[in-house]
Amino acid sequence: MQPEGRSMRENILAAAVQLFSEYGYHAAPLRDIARLAGIQAASIYHHYPSKQALLVEIMEKHMQQLNSKLERILHEYHDPLDRLREAIANHIRLHTSNKAEFFIIDTELRALEGEHRTRIIAMRDTYDAMIQEILRDGMERGVFHPSDVKVTSYAIIALCTQVSSWFRPGGRLSVQQVIDIYYQMVSQGLVRVPEHKDEQKREESVRT
Fold this sequence. Notes:
Elements: H1 8-23, H2 30-37, H3 51-76, H4 80-97, H5 99-107, H6 114-140, H7 149-161, H8 163-166, H9 175-190, H10 195-207
């Protein structure tokens, strides 16, 4: 039984997401996707020309969502800490609410062919560049410690992506609580302490 109100194209895409995430792209034949969607194998070609087209649509749809939300954050927020907080929240929310889709994006890039691979990599690079813009801006304004922008961006992205591997809805922590914890960890590692506070800490250390 397929969910009411969902088109056959959506049913097929949902079946592909389930099988690609469970077994991998290459181990999920179109006939199994069609069976799970409730149609004959030959009928799938009325909606998608190939299995590759399914993979591309999954990746494009969710990378576009990730990028467009981060782009909006960059336009709506100007304080580096606000931008960092919202960027972390955006990444964690999308990766925990669309776990299977982003797992496919993270693990099946090698399965993309030709220009499809080039296009998805370009979208990923755009996302990386926006995270790096947040960090570079914060460093140039003296809010963040000077550091290697690329390495720092990769570390933050990997840290936030990993949440989806262990987070369980209904568990001890809500998504927002996890976001708050991760923002605290990341910001404490990045934010510069004003010089007068450094001196105060040194003086307190000497007195003790």
